[in-house]
Amino acid sequence: MMNVLLLITVTLFFGKVAVKLGLSEVIGQLLAGIVVGMSFLNIVHSTNLVHVLSEIGIFILMLSSGLASDMKTMKKYIKASSLIAIMGVAIPVIAFPAAFILMGYSVSVSLFSGIVFSATSISITLAVLAEQKKLTSVVGAIILSAAIIDDVISLLAVTLFSVFIGNGGFNISSLLPLIAFVIGIFLRKTAIADQIFENTNWVGQWIFYPIFFGSIGLNVSIGQLNNKILAIVLFILLAIITKFGGSWIGAKMSGLNNTASKAIGAGMVSRGEMALVITQIGLSSQVISAAVSGELILVIIFSTLIAPILMKPLFANI
């Protein structure tokens, strides 16, 4: 239990420091796990209790995401958001497997990488939109709608992939994130939806999310990544270019002007929590190894750090 309490304390602290520095709280919590885990201090370990609590964290995170999904807004901008989501998924799903295969990875790992980087982080984009007072703008609504569709596609893809291709065979933990997301969407229609969201999100933010994001960092071994630096840099560039380019193309196809299309492209770049959930599903389903998971996590971290830098000037012009 002391192991868990120490993990929660350190990840909460790092998360708040990250926010003060203008970064994502998720990034701070991930870095906390890396610092106290096997890479550096090695004082917190990934025990069975940590694993169980992190699984609960994934469930609550996906439930909250479903509760926060506004179906009315999605219907209003369904054409634009669907095209943006589809193109924003299609290009990473094609480009990443090709790049991974060229770098010598197995076919299953390469295909899985495409699913990981097809996801979009809603929370990072929300924070920048709110900061620039663009949440209620047309572009803001389209980005959020597209990100939700994006994540539904990614969750469906990783669920099917891990069940039918994962080395562990059928694994109920692979289905739980999708089940939680769907439950959240249905609960959204109830009169107590806001109260449920407030309560689950509070418990998540102060207990379960820090354990989940911190536990991911615990298993990252920086020492094993020395010979992968070039590959990681290339994947970071690919993560930014494919999502920006795919979403920009989708926005242009839907009839939006170039300024709005570029802002939408930037708004879809961040991977954050959804990509981390998908990575964790791949790890638990034995689709990827801990070493590959560490590589993916570093790419996710850097793409999430770069995303707000791209978003802020482009959002200012819409």
UniProtKB/TrEMBL annotation:
Instruction: Give the primary localization class.
Output: membrane
Q: How does it sit in the membrane?
A: Multi-pass membrane protein
Q: Which residues cross the membrane?
A: 48-68, 80-103, 109-129, 141-164, 170-187, 207-223, 229-251, 287-310
Q: Per its record, how is this protein called by name?
A: High-affinity Na(+)/H(+) antiporter NhaS3
Q: Which residues form the Cation/H+ exchanger transmembrane domain?
A: 11-182
Entry similarity comment: Belongs to the monovalent cation:proton antiporter 2 (CPA2) transporter (TC 2.A.37) family.
Which organism is the protein's source?
Leuconostoc suionicum
Location(s), subcellular? Membrane
Q: Which GO terms describe its molecular function?
A: antiporter activity
Q: Which GO terms describe its biological process?
A: proton transmembrane transport; sodium ion transport
State the GO CC annotations: membrane
Query: What Gene3D superfamilies does the entry give?
Result: 1.20.1530.20
| Signal peptide as annotated in the record | none
Q: What is the lineage of its organism?
A: Bacteria, Bacillati, Bacillota, Bacilli, Lactobacillales
Query: Pfam families given for it?
Result: Na_H_Exchanger
Alphabetically sorted, this entry's keywords are: Antiport, Ion transport, Membrane, Sodium, Sodium transport, Transmembrane, Transmembrane helix, Transport
